[in-house]
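re: that complex we talked abt at group meeting.

here r the seqs, copy pasted straight from the sheet so there may be weird spacing, ignore it
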Amino acid sequence: MTNAINAGMPSVEIITIGDELLIGQTIDTNSAYIATILNLNGISVKQITSVSDNEEHIIYALNDAQKRANIILMTGGLGPTKDDITKKTLCKYFNTGLRFDEEAFKNITRLFTSYGREVTPLNRMQAEVPTICETIYNEFGTAPGMWFVKDEKIIVSMPGVPYEMKAMLQNIILPKIKKQFTLPHIIHKIVLTQGIGESFLADLISKWEDSLSPLQIKLAYLPSIDIVRLRLSTKGYNADELNNNVNQKIEELKQLIPQYICGLETYGEEKETLEQIIGKLLKEKQLTIATAESCTGGYLAHLITSVAGSSEYYVGSVIAYSDMIKELELNVPTQLLQEHGAVSQPVVEQMAISIRKKFNTNIGVATSGIAGPSGGTDEKPVGTVWVAVSIGNKIISDRFLFGKRRERNIQKSAQAALNILRKELI
Amino acid sequence: MTNAINAGMPSVEIITIGDELLIGQTIDTNSAYIATILNLNGISVKQITSVSDNEEHIIYALNDAQKRANIILMTGGLGPTKDDITKKTLCKYFNTGLRFDEEAFKNITRLFTSYGREVTPLNRMQAEVPTICETIYNEFGTAPGMWFVKDEKIIVSMPGVPYEMKAMLQNIILPKIKKQFTLPHIIHKIVLTQGIGESFLADLISKWEDSLSPLQIKLAYLPSIDIVRLRLSTKGYNADELNNNVNQKIEELKQLIPQYICGLETYGEEKETLEQIIGKLLKEKQLTIATAESCTGGYLAHLITSVAGSSEYYVGSVIAYSDMIKELELNVPTQLLQEHGAVSQPVVEQMAISIRKKFNTNIGVATSGIAGPSGGTDEKPVGTVWVAVSIGNKIISDRFLFGKRRERNIQKSAQAALNILRKELI
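got the structure back, here u go
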């Protein structure tokens, strides 16, 4: 079905479809994901366009995108209900009818069977695809993707559900694109600077900045609350040369402003989380762990158990949200609670020691703090948190003062606990 | 400077500018924010377009947007560094030069003084604006916004830093737009349904759905992990009539599928979560609750304790990630575990009963399942989850079969537990 296309550098446009995007009910996260995956594979994105579930507008956007791009990736509007019109619109656009795709139907049946349900007529209709398209199977959902070729342009329609789209893009669509194009390399490297505003920084490095353009390296300044990111971007077919050029310029920058550089960031990489790092360390060292949580209310345990295989080292937790449970289950003496309060060093240390003993693990971790919004005092304002780790014959504890926002205090407390643990493990 | 424009319903397009958007380094959250604020004020958004810091492309996008919209709101590209070219591009687009804006410069000076710094020449240049624009002052940053009128179209350029843009939009730009247009009302109301897939739901309510279009009400289905949101949208000048129509249809829906409706959501407001709903019910009924978690690993407790004030009703949890803890802490008999396995009705029921007794609460909730990716068998595949609620003299338990993905299984299990609890509480 697919004609071979062998242009040089492909360029892509993304069209995301759905009224929910145009009324702000949903933030378009799909586009950033797609753009990242494409860039990592040498493909530039020219424009991202979000339009509503409107036939005329979708067709306009498709025609417009083709002026600039030779690949158009669309997401959204493939659900079984009446408000989703992308498939119908594509039939009209390509002047084609529908065919019933047996394989797509098998996939729908498989999914419904796994949920213990019968396929409805509406879902059966999801196995119908435009006659001229190549069907892209959807591992995680009922809406198949569709791959079209017209006037040497590739047009692909994917579902809007992020994890369905991601699997389709990574496993099927990207490999298909790679087969048809000789892709260049796109390099983005990011230098983190701290302690200097972007305009001061720009003054300081202006000569260095001027030396980038002869090498076809583009510089971008990305200021955020505390950090200015400098992104160096370049594109070409010789990966070694591109990398060497960028690395050399980063070395020069390090010489130029060593006092402001606080790190490098790898573009597009999923950052390894603290709980993943700790999971690896615990497995390696064959240690077990239990937690006793107050202010984090289960979030610390959740982070630890979000890692696949965590049952190898994680035994469990007592969440002692009330003082009664701290006393009864974690052997915190009433007197200690009365004298120092639940949010205190002796209490959190006792919690860590007790849970380790009670659950018979190598390590005990405990948190106790005031997440807010209420419960703060002058002496212990909202955001005050104690964290303790009991390991070997050591007990490490530390006090933190985070901010006023409950959600952030819970997150930061759990991160602080994991970070103390990480430091002890390495 | 600004000509009065008095067309009827204005329509808006949003153009967000920045290479970081096209390479996926930054997710465009500004557009969803702007779209929400506009909809709440009766203004529809036709298209959202993201383009890179490229003069030609920005000008193309501006011309294209004017075909559909009479107001164009742009963000991004106003920083002091060389990579930001929006202001220069707008000068070219409007065929105008720059003027030095004393007020904008005072604002820049004020900001630098507050940081204890001198204004750099680069920042001084930020006080230059296109001669023909009206300057929009930036309370929180150095880049002024710019308001242009051309051929009866309004074109506004705002900085891309979210909090700078938000203040500008809310305090200056929106009031200016409101003065120039007689704005209609846009109503979005959202009904939350649970326990039924979107295609089954669509079958069930298809007649009701047909009755919406004569009233100019548009229906959208928005499926998420456990909930399908039904959004009813309408637009017009008579707010009472619009509200009455939508409310009446929601009442009809409540009659039609009372068993699946689990709440309403106010558009543009923070969504009420299941844990918030349960929090309210528990407070109202003055009941206390404890949890015993296996597969959810603390996530259920985390959801419950993410609600401010949850310490009034939530006492704590035992996370029994290992069978040993289920035996020792939750009195699950060894025999029961051996005969039925940890993921079974008798075990999860015993967990719920035990935690309630142990923590002396009115309610006990328990989960036990196979989150995956490993641990599944033919009889109990990954995604098999048992949930139990012990309340009054009742024990309610239910078995679920979710999918293969660990993260989703954890989320869905916790949601399922909360939902059983919600049903028992109402």
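couple things i noticed - The mean pLDDT of chain A is 93. DSSP finds 16 helices and 17 strands in chain A.
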